[in-house]
């Protein structure tokens, strides 16, 4: 199938307004639309946030039997839907079901004055679903008749974040290969990268699947149970099963983005100075000066096509089960072999104290 990229992600949250306040005030998202019983979405309140081409839908259940209520009770706030844009939602739905996905919502069309949107929903991993989205007409209308869009264009030059680059998924041990095959068979994704990651005494297996056009990318990770328990085990325990560990937001200027988000109160996982002392020997010349990367903790790596710059934000979730990543690509299409261990080492330093407190029962 011809997947165009990650159209949007939907979080199920306990309080959509509170979650929206955090993303708007800290990460620079803007409220673009809203929906609820008055717009034909019974039992829920949904807020649409946007920045650049990133779209995030926040949904809270208003009634005890709404799926968002059960999700939040089990997992806490988290990603419940990763939506893929496609040219033909009906064909994508049929192909996914034929390839092993479970049908959740059959194709349905939402019509507006200037746009029509056809969507269908199938199973993904754990309790996470995939919405297949086919759009026609005006780009600004997210879901005609269900999400009421707010008037007013964004202020020019204010978007530091551009797209949802990829989603990272934590899986239970022993399920990685089967999950990769599922995405190959149900969605036609390709396995583009795999490696074994060591962080201290921990180990994890990683495989990256991507749509043929490169627009939608999932990094799939499972723990190595023969090694010491670590952050993937923490996620599976604190989240009560597999789920999205982080979403990466692309930027055209990661240095400016880190500075701006830092001024708004976002913390970032620190990187030791030793990482930068060995940088030239590992990678050679890099596009961004090291003196701009070092004080901010930004990491740099390369693949066959170019360079990439990455950093993890500290988790703002009470369970520490979700966080954001920032990434700037200079031609790179996949992932390098040194950044991923360094990123997870940085996250391990952040989570170590949390793990000790949790294990102590405090």
UniProtKB/TrEMBL annotation:
InterPro entries: 4OHPhenylPyrv_dOase, 4OHPhenylPyrv_dOase_C, 4OHPhenylPyrv_dOase_N, Glyas_Bleomycin-R_OHBP_Dase, Glyas_Fos-R_dOase_dom, VOC_core. GO terms for biological process: L-tyrosine catabolic process. PROSITE patterns: VOC. GO terms for molecular function: 4-hydroxyphenylpyruvate dioxygenase activity; metal ion binding. SUPFAM superfamilies: Glyoxalase/Bleomycin resistance protein/Dihydroxybiphenyl dioxygenase. Keywords: Dioxygenase, Iron, Metal-binding, Oxidoreductase, Pyruvate, Repeat. Binds 1 Fe cation per subunit. Belongs to the 4HPPD family. NCBIfam families: 4HPPD (TIGR01263). This is 4-hydroxyphenylpyruvate dioxygenase. It comes from Actinacidiphila paucisporea.
């Amino acid at each position: 199938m011809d997947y165009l990229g990650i159209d949007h992600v939907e979080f199920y949250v306990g309080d959509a307004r509170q979650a929206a306040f955090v993303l708007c005030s800290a990460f620079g998202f803007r409220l673009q639309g809203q929906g609820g019983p008055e717009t034909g979405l019974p039992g829920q309140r949904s807020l649409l946030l946007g920045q650049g081409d990133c779209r995030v839908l926040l949904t809270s259940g208003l009634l005890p039997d709404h799926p968002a209520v059960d999700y939040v009770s089990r997992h806490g706030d988290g990603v419940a839907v990763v939506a893929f844009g496609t040219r033909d939602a009906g064909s994508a739905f049929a192909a996914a079901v034929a390839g092993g996905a479970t049908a959740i919502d059959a194709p349905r069309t939402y019509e507006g004055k200037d746009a029509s949107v056809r969507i269908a929903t199938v199973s993904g991993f754990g309790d996470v679903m995939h919405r297949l989205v086919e759009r026609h007409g005006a780009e600004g209308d997210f879901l005609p008749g269900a999400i009421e869009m707010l008037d007013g264009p964004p202020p020019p030059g204010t978007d530091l974040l551009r797209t949802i680059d990829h989603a990272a998924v934590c899986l239970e041990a022993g399920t990685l290969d089967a999950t990769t095959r599922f995405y190959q068979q149900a969605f036609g994704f390709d396995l583009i990268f795999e490696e074994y990651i060591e962080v201290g005494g921990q180990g994890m297996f990683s495989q990256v699947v991507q749509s043929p056009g490169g627009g939608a990318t999932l990094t799939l990770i499972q723990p190595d149970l023969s090694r010491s328990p670590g952050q993937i085990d923490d996620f599976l325990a604190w989240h009560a099963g597999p789920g999205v560990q982080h979403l990466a937001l692309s930027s055209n200027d990661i240095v400016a983005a880190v500075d701006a988000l830092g001024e708004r109160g976002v913390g970032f996982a620190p990187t030791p100075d030793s990482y930068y002392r060995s940088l030239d020997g590992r990678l050679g010349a890099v596009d961004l000066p090291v003196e701009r990367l070092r004080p901010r903790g930004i990491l740099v790596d390369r693949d066959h096509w170019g360079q990439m710059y990455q950093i993890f934000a500290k988790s703002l979730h009470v369970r520490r089960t979700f966080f954001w990543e920032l990434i700037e690509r200079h031609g790179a299409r996949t992932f390098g072999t040194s950044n991923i261990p360094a990123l997870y080492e940085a996250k391990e330093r952040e989570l170590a104290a949390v793990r000790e407190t949790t294990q102590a029962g405090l």
